[in-house]
Structures are given as C-alpha cells and as structure tokens.
## 1
Amino acid sequence: MLAFADAVDRLNQRVANVVRWLALTMVLVQFCIVIGRYVFGYNSIAAQESVLYMHATLFMLGAGYTLLVDKHVRVDVFYAKLTERNRRRIDIFGHLFLLLPSMTVLLYWSWPSVRNSWKILEGPMSVGGIEAVFLLKSLIPAFCCLIILQSLSLLIRLLVQGAKS
C-alpha cells in the first residue's frame, strides 16, 4: 500500500513541476496582452482566453500537490491545539466522509457534461476564442482523479502511522 502512496505522491509532484510554469507563462501572456492593447491597439480574444485556460489548468491540476504538501485551506482554530492522535482522527474522518465523497460526486455529476463536450468537440466561449472548451472541461475529472488519488495516499499514510502508534 505504501508503494501505491509513493507512486501517487510522485505523480502529483510531477504534475506540479509541469503546471507551476503556467504561473510565469500566464504573467508573461497577460503582460503581452496589456502591451498589445494599450501600446499597439491590438486585442486578441484567444490570447485573453489562454490566460483563463492556463489559470484553470494551474489550479485544477495543482490541487493534488497542494493537498500532498498540506497547503490546502484548513480551519485551524481547534486543529492546531489538538494532539497528534486527534489530528490524525480528524484527517481520517475528513478524507473518508468529506473529501472522497465530494470528489466522487463531482466526478459523477460532471462526467456527462465533459463527455458531451468531447462528443461535439465544443468550441470557443467567445467569437475568436480558443476552440477547445472540451479540453477546459476535461480539467474537472482530472482534478477529481488527482485529488481522490492523493486523498487515498494520505489516508494510507495516516492509517499506517496510526497502526504504528
């Protein structure tokens, strides 16, 4: 089981190593859009949409890594004051009864929309935009899968850690 957890961790690490460059690329593209518009009077809907696509990709595919390194949003009002054992219990509960079910439901309910988008190769959101909304929608199941896998990895580690103590 730990080999599975290690493989999932490596997967999310590799995905993060790729998508992190989108942050820099997004800034550069946005800079070019602003210069193009205000200096040269040129505007590109596709360039503007590319920033949206990069932003969505960065956050949707980087979420698994964020969970891996424990930088996700957490309300630490009580959690920080708890013992390690009680934190582990809360984490196990959160993975089993909150995170995994919610990601499963999101995956289930979004899949028909993603499937239909691929079926028609859904085009741009705006005239002159990027003709790949189906790719943008595909980020939803990818996000769910990466989060589910990372949640399982963390759950395995929490259970192994609990068994040792």
Note: The mean pLDDT is 95.
## 2
Amino acid sequence: MKKFFLYAFVLCFLSSCIPAKKLTYFQGEPATKSELYRLNNEPYRLQVNDILYIDIKAENPEIVSLFKNSATTSTTQGGEGLYFTGYTIDRHGNIRIPYIGDLNVLGYTEKEVRQKIESELTKYVKKVESVFVTVKLAGINFVITGEVGSPGTINLSQNEVSIVDAIANAGDVNTFGDRENIVVVRKTIDGVKKYKVNLLEIEIFESDNFYIKPNDVIYVAPLKQKTWGFGATGFQTFTTLVTVFSFVTTTILLINTL
C-alpha cells in the first residue's frame, strides 16, 4: 500500500510539472541566415472595417481643401482617434470622400488606393501632378485573448506586426499558456481561416503566418496542467501533492479507526 502511494506520488509529480521545453521560445537553429530573415513582400489588401488615413496636399491648399476631411489634419492621432476621423471601409468595401463620393477599395493595396484617388482628382484638378496624396492603414488592430497577461483589443501604429509583437504587447504568454499551439483566426475575402503558430520553434520566423493581419483574433489556449489544478513549478506541485496525500491519508486513518 505504501509503495502504491509512493509510485502514485512520483507519477503525479513528474506529469504535473511544466517542463522548461514548454516555456522556452525559438528553440532550434535556423537553416540559413537568408531564410531566417526572409520577408513576405506581398502587400496587404484591404478588408471590410479597416481604417485608412488619407491626406491630400497641394501648393495651394484651397485647391484640395474640398476633398479633405478637416478632422484628419492632425497626423498624430492614434488608432482610436482615427476611428472617428479616418476613412472606415464599410461592408460594401467603400470609403466616402468629400465630393468624390463612394470609392470602392476592397481588396486594393495602399498604393492602388492612392492611385485611384489621384485618378478621381483629375476630374476636378487641372494640374494633378501638383497634388500629393498619402494613403496609409491606420495601424494594425487585433484581438488577443486566452492565457496572456493583458487580453483585449490592441492597435499598433506599425506597417507590420509580427506574432511576437502581438504577444509581447499583450503582456506575454502566462506560465500556463500553450506556446506550441497558438491559434490565429483571420477573416478574409475567401472566408474565415484558422492558423496555428508554434512559438517554441525558431522556424516561426520563416512562417507565412509570422506577420499577423489587421483584425486578426489570436487565442492562447491553456496547458493541461492548468485544468489539473497543479502548480507551475516543481515546488508548487510538491506542495499541492503533499496537501492532497495528507488529506487522503488522514481520511483512510479515520475510516480505519471507526
């Protein structure tokens, strides 16, 4: 009976601790340096609910003032401010520009939108070459939830956001977070897609999903050790098991004395 409890104790202790291998990022060695730093040069194509910052300048400001949203004159606004002052792509894929009206930009790149606006301005401005149009995505907006320090909606004012950036800005993965199976849910023109990302391997830097897209949802699932209720470290697990076995032993002794 004593051996049974000893074996059970050791088995639970070993199986409930979280090994260091489950907590260490970017394990392994990259194949070559060129592959490690390979970037995906495919430009992002705009989706519904993306927000654009659009600015139109000219030598004579009065020429283009009619086409500008007066609230967008400040370039220091963050993603939250641009929700009210930027150009949000509606469910039909359109943005609405003063005097130009609805302009469909769904599936377009930033450069293509800029060219499209410049083309529309030729209808109203004689010397369109004197007009300077700026089109930028108003930051990368994403949702992160699960086993992270600060779950929620985050907007980063960057042209590109990697999965590492996203995790770091959410307070990193908790001890009980499964770094090996992070789920990224992405809504695209072709429908909803689901990807899995493994932060434990160095190959993540070469993955097509290393960079997230605007409006991605990132979920960090818990490790099985959390559902078991044991500690994250060996000492915590030891303390928990001692408490459990003490309770079991006391219960058995009480039953035998009856």
Note: Strands lie at 51-58, 87-88, 94-97, 101-104, 131-137, 140-146, 152-156, 177-188, 191-197, 217-222.
## 3
Amino acid sequence: MKPVYTLAEALAQDPGRIAKTQALTLDSARPHMGLKGRHGLFASDAWWESITAGRIQTQTLTGIIERIYFAGQDSRRGDQVNSVTLRLADGSTVDEGIYAHRKQDIKLFVPGAMVTMVYALDELKAQPAADGSVDVARIVLQAFVSTG
C-alpha cells in the first residue's frame, strides 16, 4: 500500500485551513456550524494528542475499488475523476472521495485496487445527529492505495 495523502501534509500546504476551522469552532455566533473542540482545536497539539490517546475516535475503511467517477456539478475534462465506489469486506459498498497530494497518484485509483482510509471522528457543535447519536465530522487523516 502506498501512502498518497496525510492530513498533516495537506495542512502544511494550506495553513489557512487550520485558522479558518479553529475560528469557526470558537465562533459562538455560529452555534450550529463547525467542530465542537471538546478535545482540542482542529490540528492543535491537543487535537493530535486526543487522536493518539483515543479521545477522538478513528475509523479505518478498507475496500476494493469497483468504480471511479466524477462527483459534483463543476465543469471538467472528460478524464478527471474525484470519487470511488469501494466494495468492503462485508459486501457493502460506500462512495468516497479520492485524496492524493500528487496528481500522478490519482492514476493509482483504478477498479480492482485496494484503498484504505483513516478518519478522525470529531464531534460537531450541532447535536444530535438525525438518528439521535453524536454527530461527527469524518476528517481524512490518511489514505493509502495498492500499487499492483
């Protein structure tokens, strides 16, 4: 499995994302928008430590690519893809975005390739979820894809 994305690298390339996300967490005028910040502000040392310690739960998803496609309404060239349908071990399917730092790594996302994605499940301000559970943001921490 080749690592093709890490949140840490993405944030290093776009440090403004940290400031914007943290500002929304701290904005009391927007009580239904953003992360709750109960275990540290997004991407702070406390937040990363909370992930390592398990206070912020993580989820790992692994599946085989069944289909690649473009999701969204923006205009695009015919060869662009940004999403995959994954077949999980239990036989179910899920649709996920493609995360890769380098454009050439997007070519690794082909039917039959295996993908593993690791998410942080960080609590949102707006609670509860429609089903009554704790509503969380699924934040991609890492993405890996098989290379052969």
Note: The longest helix spans residues 16-26.
